[in-house]
Design goal:
Length: 26
């Protein structure tokens, strides 16, 4: 698993896969 997938997975159920689901965390 890539770190990017983990971050996206955390943002999806937290705020919504449509709004914050595709926002990269830097």
């Amino acid at each position: 698993m890539l770190q990017g997938e983990i971050w996206y997975a955390n943002l999806s159920p937290t705020k919504g896969s449509e709004q914050a689901g595709y926002r990269p965390v830097l």
